[in-house]
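re: ur question from earlier - yeah i can do the single chain one, its not a big deal. heres the input i used so u can compare w yours
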Amino acid sequence: MTARIVCLPGDGIGPEVTAEAVRVLESLPVEVELESRPFGGVAIDATGDPLPDDTLAACRDADAVLLGAVGAPRFDRADIRPEQGLIRLRRELDVYANLRPARQGDVDLVIVRELVGGLYYGARGVRPDGTVFDTCEYTAAQVERIARRGFDLARSRRGRLTSVDKANVLATSRLWREVVDGVAADYPDVERDDQLVDSAAMRLVTHAHEFDVIVTENMFGDILSDVAAAVAGGLGVAASASLGDAGPGIFEPVHGSAPDIAGRGIANPTAMLRSLALLLEHALGEAALAARLEAAIDGALAAVPTPDAGGSASTSAFTDAVLERLATEEEPWKTEEPWRTRV
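and the output i got, formated as tokens:
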């Protein structure tokens, strides 16, 4: 069965790293149909909307969405910004579970971030006196479904889950902890502890190897996942998968559009290639193939790093090294058949 994948290259280095992911995907024994759509700043330029209706419709009909990056300095003070399209896309596809792995040396953890609730989606505005407000809101149902995602993942890994909140101050966090308590009763085989977000951030810096799965709300997860990425080698190597209960997931690097290096051919495609590995595992059911790709990426990182990782390899040269490692592995999945079609 052919899987339909919509590519949203986006802005800055987004098109560059997306092109490298497509090169790798086309070399693999998976039957896919690829379609590219405008999104982010380029879509604003073309249509006035960062998420045009045609792009959203294509994403709804896809099996997976592969997203590059969005954002550009010229939109920072604009009323319509590329990031608004990303937030809307997440809500429209209801990809409430954002998985952000961090792995290096003895560090092997996954942050499970609630993605469609909290401060980023609450009421906001300006009062007559000039006060600006953003509202953090959660329902028990929203907390329960992300908690179950976290517990299920921990059960499949090392059996440890850390729930992060700010229950000593915030009402939403007290609800969070109460609901997680209830869900934990269904997972007696998973060791669970609670951490306040400030102490969890400190522990990530000093004792990241102690974590297995971290589950937390939207803004805390946004911040903590960047901390974890820094511990594991930086944003250039950090991938993510945003998943729902039905419909396509969104697979994207954690880094931004990096306009300062766009077009120079030096962007590190590792995060995008690792996002492709997550797509293979979670959208296409190809866990073994995903592991092969991860191994090839690790080998390329050690042999031919890009400038941000202390080397001099270009974006395309790094991908060449990944492809070489995939091609030289004598494994049953290797094939010469043309497994993909383009549209």
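DSSP finds eleven helices and 13 strands in the chain. not sure if urs matches, ping me
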